[in-house]
Write a structure and sequence with these properties.
Radius of gyration: 18 Å
Strand content: 25-35%
CATH topology: Rossmann fold
Largest sheet: 7 strands, mixed
CATH architecture: 3-Layer(aba) Sandwich
Low-confidence stretches: 1-97
């Protein structure tokens, strides 16, 4: 499957293959370079080989590295760990207009109400997926840069986070299906997808399930839902459960060096986290 367009917001563009799952899995070796389990980056020796459960036939997907590190394996699967940010470049199309804080709206989908923010405009859409904490509001500082680059900004609250609501009588479905439903609701056929942390896991699942809808995929600060026993054991050593999971969100999501060096940024992050859960739609 060919993807003719790249997201001109990063500094490096490359192509790779990604497995398209059919609910069967197999093991595939990938080099382990850099992982982030929610407490900041952890460097791991490059020669070490771990195994990743993947499946489905391979499909071509274009990845973009934005000031970050790419992890690849020779047969084509790739996970990108990127320090997300708009650095340069524009695309054709009129930039979105309006305030840089986009009001939320609600998409009434079967069995669920998905809260989203859509800046509108004629630019190519970029859809942003938040971490396990927060909601669509955490992306508001990216809106101006996205518009200035000529893109259409879209973000939404995933079920279980923010203000989106699942009807208790409905089947829960999957996060990838929710994203697909929202894109159909907004009549967005093809788009760039950006997922950070837990949002990166959803982004990869969507790419595997609906590759024909993506122009490109960016996964930032995420281990990508790797289920290999060695990876899981390493994660348990780094963040013992349940003690770690009961810690405040800012402790779980922001590394100690960031909290120490950026008290203002930490305070703003905490404000956005609290705003994410302040009300219901």
């Amino acid at each position: 499957m060919e993807y003719g367009e790249a997201l001109h917001m990063g500094t490096v563009h490359t192509r790779c293959s990604i497995a398209n799952p059919n609910r069967r899995t197999k093991s595939a070796a990938i080099p382990k370079i850099l992982v982030d389990t929610g407490r900041g980056y952890t460097w791991v020796p490059a020669p070490t080989i771990e195994r990743l459960s993947i499946g489905r036939e391979k499909k071509d997907v274009r990845f973009v590295m934005a000031n970050g590190v790419m992890i690849t394996r020779s047969v084509g699967f790739a996970i990108m760990v990127a320090a997300l940010g708009v650095v340069s470049g524009r695309v054709e199309g009129q930039s979105s207009t309006g305030p840089d804080v986009v009001a939320e709206a609600v998409a009434h989908l079967p069995g669920r109400e998905i809260v989203f923010r859509d800046a509108g405009g004629s630019g190519v859409p970029i859809v942003f997926l938040h971490a396990g904490t927060g909601s669509s509001i955490v992306w508001q500082h990216q809106i101006a840069a996205v518009r200035a680059a000529g893109y259409r900004f879209v973000a939404y609250d995933r079920l279980g986070s923010g203000r989106s609501v699942l009807d208790p009588r409905a089947e829960p479905g999957s996060a990838a299906d929710d994203l697909q439903g929202l894109m159909d609701h907004l009549k967005i056929e093809r788009f760039h997808l950006v997922g950070t942390a837990a949002g990166g896991i959803v982004a990869l699942d969507y790419a595997l399930s609906f590759p024909q809808r993506l122009r490109c995929l960016v996964v930032a600060n995420s281990i990508g839902g790797v289920q290999d026993d060695d990876y899981l054991a390493m994660g348990r050593r780094m963040r013992p459960s349940p003690q770690f999971d009961s810690m405040p969100a800012e402790f779980r999501e922001l590394g100690p060096s960031y909290r120490a060096a950026n008290p203002a940024g930490t305070a703003r992050w905490m404000e956005l986290e609290h705003e994410s859960h302040a009300t219901t739609p």
